[in-house]
Amino acid sequence: MANLTALTANLNRDAKKVKTPYKAADFCFFAVASDKNDPDEINASAYFELLERKQLPPWALFVFAEMKKMKGGTPAPDPVAAIGDGFILLAPEPVNGGMSGLLIAQQKVSGQVLDVKLGQMNLKVTCPEFEEMLLAREDIFVGVNG
User: Fold this and answer.
1) Cα-based torsion angle of the residue sequence 6, 35, 139, 26 in order, rounded to the nearest 10 degrees
2) What is the dihedral of CA 99, 104, 109, 115, to 10 degrees?
3) What pLDDT was estimated at residue 30?
4) Residue 37 confidence (pLDDT)
5) What does the alpha-carbon distance between residue 7 and residue 13 come to, in Å, rounded to a whole number?
6) Strand partners for 124
7) How many CB atoms lie within 10 A of CB 144?
8) Among 5, 21, 4, which Cα is nearest to 13's?
């Protein structure tokens, strides 16, 4: 029921007013809420793949301890991440008009249109607004421009 409600809400959503698409979890009123924001194994494997390739910038090491806890035997996703200056989207999944994944970002990119590299492709993306100096949050929608 929550999936159908999220689908209906997204079909009728005004993208200018509500930039982030609704998720089924937004309509699960009887689900147990969790304040825990630990990354799942696929994000941890993507993080460590970037570290191994020497593509992980030093500022992104603030989540190393949390990622290490979740590291398992899961292979790294393909593509591993969308990377730009002050912006990393781990394990990006295509979503209507954009991508969703674990966003690791610096405050300077909040609300900005950025040039990022996703594998061999160069894209322009719109980073969501946030107030933290450094952000690490799962299931973040990032709009792809053009």
Assistant:
1) 10
2) -50
3) 58
4) 44
5) 10
6) 115, 145
7) 17
8) 21
Overall average pLDDT of the 109-129 stretch: 93
Say which DSSP state 38 is in.
-
DSSP label at residue 59: G
Cα separation, 92 vs 70, whole angstroms: 18
List the domain boundaries for the chain.
Answer: 1-33, 37-145
Question: 87: pLDDT confidence band, cut at 50, 70 and 90?
Answer: very high
The larger pLDDT score, comparing residue 39 to residue 81, is at 81
The residue-averaged pLDDT of 38-45 equals 80
How far apart, in whole angstroms, are the C-alpha atoms of residue 26 and residue 105?
24
> Tell me, what's the pLDDT at 36?
44
Q: How far from each other are the two terminal CA atoms of the chain, in whole angstroms? A: 33
